[in-house]
Amino acid sequence: MEQFTPIASLCGGVLIGLSASLLLLSDGKIAGISGIVGGLLPPIKNDTAWRLLFILGLLAGGLPFQLFLPEVLTIGITRSTSTLILAGLLVGFGTRVGNGCTSGHGVCGISRLSPRSLISTVTFIVTGAITVYIMNYLLGGAL
Fold it and tell me: How many distinct structural domains can be found in the chain?
């Protein structure tokens, strides 16, 4: 762990929780990104505007950092393009099989005490840990 940022992490978690709660309480919708994007492809009649605004809000949230503190958004990706594409496809497949993603299950589902969301979130975490182990230790980070 290179940078331990408990205050920033706590603030981010509180903001995510508040925004998910506001969406659920005000409109009865779950703030799961895969479900929100999935509802745009193909568009659901009379249910597109809020989805587009939600996605635009996610993208716009990083804009001030990009303009004023670009080093905050700097990341180093050490994998090949083909590995990243394969990883993205596998994550997309997993969200379909799991009927949601970490934001839907992990943030919204667990807070509603959903057993299905608890099982899904544990599965996401365990699968991620196994993948990191395989990629970094068994394959030596070669892909």
Answer: 1
Give the C-alpha separation, 37 to 88, whole Å: 14
List C-alpha distances in Å: 68 to 62, 83, 96, 133. 10, 32, 37, 36
Tokens of 80: 């090949």
- Note the residue count of the chain: 143
Examine residue 23 and state whether it is found in any structural domain, yes or no. yes
Does any domain span residue 89?
A: yes
Strand ranges inside the chain, DSSP E = none
Q: Given the structure tokens 């994007």, which residue do they identify?
A: 37
pTM: predicted TM-score of the whole model, two decimal places: 0.76
Task: List, for residues 94-129, the tens digit of each pLDDT value.
Answer: 888 888 888 889 888 898 899 999 999 999 899 989
Looking at the domain assignment, is residue 1 inside a domain? no
Eight-class DSSP state of 139? S
